[in-house]
Amino acid sequence: MKLNEAVSKRLKELLDEKNMTQYQLYVKSGVPKSTIGNIMHCSYDSVKLRVIHELCQGLGISIPDFFNSPFFLEDSLDP
């Protein structure tokens, strides 16, 4: 899987865990709705760490918590 797909899947997983919508994440994080939608639909080849940090703040988690997922294991990611 590509890294942008892993970020998208992890974000969806976290939204489900927190029972949050993309709109609620936008309100809490300040990340534009369009950016969140583009991340969810893998429209970007990569996502800036600054954006992931802001999303994490909105989700109430740390950056290490975001990346603490099997989606980011080296064996799961395409080179």
Automatic annotation (TrEMBL):
SUPFAM superfamilies linked to this entry: lambda repressor-like DNA-binding domains
Gene3D superfamilies named in the record: lambda repressor-like DNA-binding domains
CDD domains xrefs: HTH_XRE
Domain HTH cro/C1-type: 11-66
Protein name: Helix-turn-helix transcriptional regulator
